[in-house]
Design goal:
It is a single chain. 44% of the residues lie in helices and 15% in strands. The chain contains 18 helices and 14 strands. The radius of gyration is 29 Å and the shape is flat. The two termini are 46 Å apart.
Length: 513
Amino acid sequence: MPIAEQIRSKLSQLPHKPGVYLMKDRFGTVIYVGKARDLRKRVSQYFHPSRRMGWDLKFNALVEAIHEFDVHVVRSEPEAVLLEGKLIKEFHPRYNVSFRDDKRFLLLKVNLNDPIPRFTLTRLKTDDGARYFGPFAGSGALRRTLNLVRHKFNLRGCRPLTPNETDYKHCLYAHLKVCTAPCIGNVTREQYLMQVTAACDFLDGQSREMKEQLEAEMKKAAAAQDFEKAAQLRDTLFDLRRTTQKTEKFRRIPYKLPVAVDPDNDLEELGKVLGLPAPPLRIEGFDISNISGTFAVSSMVSFKGGRPDRANYRRFRMKTVVGQDDFASMAETIRRRYTRLKAESATGQPGKWSNVPDLILIDGGKGQLNAACEELNKLGLTRIPVIGLAKEFEEIYRPGESAPLRLSHDSSALKLLQRVRDESHRFANTYNAQLRLKRISESILDEYPGIGQQRKAALLKKFGSVHRLRLASVQDIARVPGFGGKAAAELKVFLEARSSLAPPSEAPKAGQD
């Protein structure tokens, strides 16, 4: 069936529901992610010939590159926004601009283990024992609803972790009777926790009574021709409904790697074009990921029978490479992976590293390939075929061959190599992102209100780590530039409140070397 007929047939089956669509090129690569209130109407617009004259050059190029598309149906438009952002960060489509940075949607956070809990906005969810609400597609609606919640449940809006009597004297919230002021003993901590818990239940969706009350007041104001007040109540009700609406969290997107219709045919063709004695049933692909030399990591993915064999994926964090050196990183990765293979083979006992590949695929050109071949020669494993795939022109480099091999872009053998290469790239980037996220979450000082970079740097320079800072006395902390006795005592209380919630150090995970 021609491409146009395939797309036309798929368009007729799309529902008139909100969702997200993913446009893919002929290699199965996601090139654009978009959201829609009505999937059928929105996606159909891409393929209306009558609209082509009004398209700009970029949009024309996108439509010309579309070979296939997928859709994900969701329950509401805010869910579509959340899922769109998640997918763009995951696939980095070349035709998308929005959501490609590291900015995340807002979350609402409260830690019930704090001396006097308070609701705060954050964009990063960590394993710190706090309760999180969201993410929220509309930041303005969230901020206005949070203000409504604080007034309804008489909650604090001040920044200090542990407000005291001095802070209370200048606290507008307490003077206006908005906050019950637990900092000076107007209510006990247990009573204040009941207020916070009630607010949590409200944000979880138990807000029907409040919505009915606002709707009744809105109608009453409209009947009295107080249209300004009615409009304000209408907007408040709208914000409340948006904020408390149940949405899917989309923690993990169940989007599968594209797989060929006939992988056996792909393997047979690949074996022929590479001159192998048989189709390469087991392929191992390698890629390097680092950002300006930081968190240099590499990945190894395994394909068996032309399909991903995720149980045999491996990931590596560089131990000997300093700075940004992809050749040295590739050499270290190959050395560590196949040293393990050789050691397990020598014992005669099968292990998790003992699978011998029929083909090794290196993401890169001659430099990366030569680095890999040199390590394999040292290990005496030259019998394993190895090739490099350079992304710019999709050229295949082979040891001892000066000219690269170029296959047709419609070749099923090339598409199989691209799937292995793209999967190794995705796996390496995911590991790199996890390490960066862990580094961010490890610094608990970022959560301490009012601390700047200079004072944070001074603390880490003095004590070396957050763990040693926890063990320090108030007097030791007070000696750090920028801290006095009061600030040191408050920081000590903050660290003690978090100490019981600190996650244990992670043990090495399976599949990590």
